[in-house]
Amino acid sequence: MTLTAFSCNNKEKKKEKEAKETTVAVQDQDVAKLEISGNRRFFATEDGKPFFWLGDTAWLLFNKLNREETDAYLEDRKVKGFNVIQVMVLHSLDAVNVYGDTALIKQNVALPVVTPGNSFENEEEYDFWDHVDYAVESAEEKGLYMALVPVWGSNVKAGKVEVGDARKYASFLAERYKDKNNIIWLDGGDTFGNEYTDVWNAIGETLKKENPDKLVTFHPRGRMQSSDWFHDKSWLDFNMFQSGHRRYDQDDSERKYGEDNWRYVQADYNRKPVKPTVDGEPSYEGIPQGLHDPQEPFWEDKDVRRYGYWSVFAGAAGYTYGHSAVMQMHRPVDKEGAYGNKKYWTDAINDPGAEQMQYLKALMLRFPYFERVPDQSLVADQGERYDYQTATRGTDYALVYTYNGRNITLNMGKIKGDKVKAQWYSPRDGQMQDIGTFDNTGKQEFDPPGKKEDGNDWVLILTSV
Predict the structure, then answer these.
(1) What is the distance between the terminal CA atoms of the chain, rounded to a whole angstrom?
(2) How do the domains of the chain map onto residue ranges?
(3) How far is 50 from 30, CA to CA, in rounded Å?
(4) What average pLDDT does range 1-22 have in this prediction?
(5) From the DSSP assignment, how many helices (H) and strands (E) are in the chain?
(6) What is the CATH number assigned to the segment(s) 17-364?
(7) Euclidean distance between CA atoms 242 and 223, whole angstroms
(8) HSE-CB of 279 using CA atoms within 13 angstroms
């Protein structure tokens, strides 16, 4: 999505006792390196454990939060089960953080403003990049990964980033964070890969060459996917798409997928070579439908749940949640929020969608992970739009999602066993209800609790007996 300019001019070069104490509060904690799984569909830690990407969008974290606030935000996301935080390094080339530190000399990405030392107590030592370091280290302490966009796409589109400078900047970042296991690189930034392709390739190639142990992808424009331009590039480890913020009737793209974000997954899933894919920016909770008109209805928790289950069950390796107030880190000192936002980030972090994402992650990690495949042959009546039902399974389990409580009719016999145990799982609170045991043959209809209505979503769980 495209961000409007935010006020980042206030200087808070305060030597408060609490702020000083935080300079020594962060201790490095071992965070496992991330890899692509053996079957190339998912993420895994270097010791072979499943890693389900549960991201949060905090685009302006480095610009707008101080150290204490950064710690509070990251701790909240850790507690709620998130494990990836997506952040812009440079939203704009005149980027200034909350302490008044500028990032670049003469707005040139090849010339970062770096001062000797990094003491918060000494204003002459502490700089923009030290503040980024602090956030990365705080995240590392909490077991969180930072998915960093080096420079937002609008700056490149404006012709402000030359290829040679892009390489120097990417090399600077790669060198600075080469020893940090919790870094993931998101090239691009809400932009088209077929525009200024040489710049995006320069950044991607440099990051991968100099940080070969870190995952790299491309964050594209709305209703586009990285695989449209870079799937065959060796620097692209996994695909990312932005299903965007528009309703079915607002989608004017050539694809016209509308809200069917599972279609992007399906397209990537069938590409060769095989690479994982993630919806890196679906509709945000608390943002207008269609993005720009605050008179439109706002997307709610039920919508972000739907995007999550639809994409993951279609074969995605994870999911990124977002909230309008949090992605822009809206504060009381800001004159007004973008996209009609009136909520402060400190309140928005507790909105229901953010609380509910952990149940998606918990469900996916409950069963044998790497054997999971999408399988729509399970669903006898798949439906369209909000009636759509999606299924995923392993050898001895199957999961089927309904967004509106419509009855689920299954073609049985897709997992092993003569009989299966059936349960309902609530994406709203993670609670389970036993249904019973059924023959694993023929067709079987299941009636979810409650009446049929949007947001009465359920996962039907079948396990082999």
Answers:
(1) 46
(2) 17-364, 375-464
(3) 17
(4) 38
(5) 13, 20
(6) 3.20.20.80
(7) 6
(8) 34
